[in-house]
Structures are given as structure tokens and as C-alpha cells.
Amino acid sequence: MAIAYTVPNGEQWLFSFQVKFYAPEPTLLQEDITRYQLALQVRQDIYTGKLPCSWVTQALLGSFMVQAELGDYDEREHGGSTDYLKEFEFVPSPTPQLLQKIAELHKTHVGMKPNQADIKYLETAKRLELYGVDLHPVRDTENVEIYLGVGFHGIVIYRDRLRIGRFAWPKVLRISYKKNNFYLKIRPDNCGYNK
């Protein structure tokens, strides 16, 4: 059934596409459009802060984004300033220094095709610690706030922005819940954080 038939007349709805499952090796995706859609989602994750990264990584990712969207840097077209970057959403309030670094790096990508820029973007993004991780605030058995992250590699636990536990899916024996309690049974080893 077409979306037009499901929305009542006169109402305007905004639909958005979002990635639910991130590819562990996004560069192996066969279709350019699939890679592009994943790159758009990662861009959104970085912009909203869901996927934090360093200033240097923001600049590099921004330069690949600009290369994918605009192609090669052209002094005549881009005017030798960073004004041409203002239409992009890299981070909520980009500093002039960040925009300058993005422009400098953009100049080095001459000849890179849009699909190659998306591949470079995803190669860089997949190395970020929270790439493909969906974080949820929870409390541990001592009522301390922690974050439980679920991703393609397994389950991670953070406290005060530090990773205190990481469990690959083969180590997870059972996941269950009872009322407001969530339980993980992990294959025992010397990890020190088994509940």
C-alpha cells in the first residue's frame, strides 16, 4: 500500500529513513546506494552527538563528506574561503578552525569520486568506538547509572564515559528480563563484570 493512502488528507507527515543495523565492514557493501544511505546515517549520528569523535576525525570525515557531495575543490567556484561549507551539517556549531581544516583536507582529495569518498568516510567512521552501538541508560545492581550499548559486535557497558565491560555475542549465554530488571548471563572468564 502506498504511503499516500495511509496518511489522511490535508495532513503532512515527515518520514525519514534510518539505519537500524550497522554493517561491521561497510566498505564491503555491494551497492553504492546502500553505502550512501549508511554514510548519511553516520553523518546524522555524528551531527547529533550519538557517535562522538575527536576534532581531527570530525575534520577528516567532513572533508570526505564535502568531496562526496561537491566533488573536487575548485578555487574559482569555492572562492578561497570556507563559506561554501556553511550549508553542511558537520557538527551543531562548527568553529572557524574546524571549517578551515575541512577545507584544507578537501583540497587533498582531488580526483576522488563520490562513491570513493563515501567508502573513505565509512572506513574512518567504523573505527570509532561507538560506531553501530545503540546506548541505553540503565542502573546496575548497586543503583549506579551506567550505559548499556548493543551493537553488531556484542554488548558494551560504560560508566562515566569509560568502557567497563565488553561482551562479544558468543560470550552472551542468555538475555532475559523480569519487570524492570534486565539480566545478562555471560560465559565466565576473568572479565570481572558478569552481571
UniProtKB/TrEMBL annotation:
A GO MF label: cytoskeletal protein binding
Q: What protein name applies here? A: FERM central domain protein
Which BP terms from GO are recorded? actomyosin structure organization
Task: Using the record's annotation, list all stretches that form the FERM domain.
Answer: 1-195
Species whose genome carries this gene: Opisthorchis viverrini
* A Pfam family per the record: FERM_M
Q: Name the InterPro entries for this protein.
A: Band_41_domain, Ez/rad/moesin-like, FERM/acyl-CoA-bd_prot_sf, FERM_2, FERM_central, FERM_CS, FERM_domain, FERM_PH-like_C
Superkingdom, taxonomy of origin: Eukaryota
- What CDD domains has UniProt attached to this entry? FERM_B-lobe
One GO cellular component term of this record is: plasma membrane
